[in-house]
Amino acid sequence: MSDEPALKRPSGPSDMASGSTSTKRLRSDASPAPAAASVLEAFGLFRDEIDDYNDRRERLIKTSRDVTSLSKKVIFLLHRFDVGDFASDPSSATQKLLEEAESKLNHIVGVLKQAAAAEQLALPERHDRHERNIGGGLEEFIEALSFYHYLKTTNLITLQEVQERFRDVLKVPIHRYLLGLSDLTGELMRFATNAVGQGDTGRVVQHVLGITRCLHDTLDPFIPLVNELRKKQTVTRQSLQKIEHILYAITVRKAEFAADPKALQEMLRRSLDSSAPPLTD
């Protein structure tokens, strides 16, 4: 009897549950490693994409600042324009000034095109994402270019003429073009003031007043559609009023001192000095 083999107890539900639990534990112990690696890899890709975006953003912001600085230098240069050559054949000195301004503008175009090509801004998704990072410098460039174009041709530059400078490398958004033209009115007001200082008795100021009024009336309907335009148009209205005041002073003083050009210039200078806003810190 003692040699009879022991009967194997049949496995019950508790044993089956125990085996199932062991199997699940083995599976759960094996799965975390690949899953964790996959998550880490995904977050690594996210990190690289965010770092790439931030680096590109910083580079474009720096380019925008450089372009803004270079464009302001062009504007300062153009304010040395001889008003006697306005809407007429330029003298050799004025021609040299315009050629220098053109050279500086071409340099700025090169800076913008190089940045746009390096960051692949020709791609729609890249342009839409980073346009705001370079938009400020582009506005300042459009202001300088439109001022140069006005002094040279007495006309406003078109969006197509601006875009032709960049070809297909960089798209010029319509709202940047409009904002740049709105900024132009401030330079037109300064040009009108300088014109009186150089002896203009209304010819140049009258033309500047007409083009500034045209800009003001044309841009006003776009205020609800373009951010920042409302604030810029407020400045445009102020510039327009200053130019109107200058022309009014010229008209009144001409009636009083038309026979004495020197006295007329002196009275116009005094009128401008008395209407100038006080300097503030």
From TrEMBL:
<protein>
    <recommendedName>
        <fullName>Translin</fullName>
    </recommendedName>
</protein>
<dbReference type="InterPro" id="IPR036081">
    <property type="entry name" value="Translin_sf"/>
</dbReference>
<dbReference type="InterPro" id="IPR016069">
    <property type="entry name" value="Translin_C"/>
</dbReference>
<keyword id="KW-0539">Nucleus</keyword>
<keyword id="KW-0963">Cytoplasm</keyword>
<dbReference type="InterPro" id="IPR002848">
    <property type="entry name" value="Translin_fam"/>
</dbReference>
<dbReference type="GO" id="GO:0043565">
    <property type="term" value="F:sequence-specific DNA binding"/>
</dbReference>
<dbReference type="GO" id="GO:0005634">
    <property type="term" value="C:nucleus"/>
</dbReference>
<dbReference type="Pfam" id="PF01997">
    <property type="entry name" value="Translin"/>
</dbReference>
<feature type="region of interest" description="Disordered">
    <location>
        <begin position="1"/>
        <end position="32"/>
    </location>
</feature>
<dbReference type="InterPro" id="IPR016068">
    <property type="entry name" value="Translin_N"/>
</dbReference>
<dbReference type="GO" id="GO:0005737">
    <property type="term" value="C:cytoplasm"/>
</dbReference>
<comment type="similarity">
    <text>Belongs to the translin family.</text>
</comment>
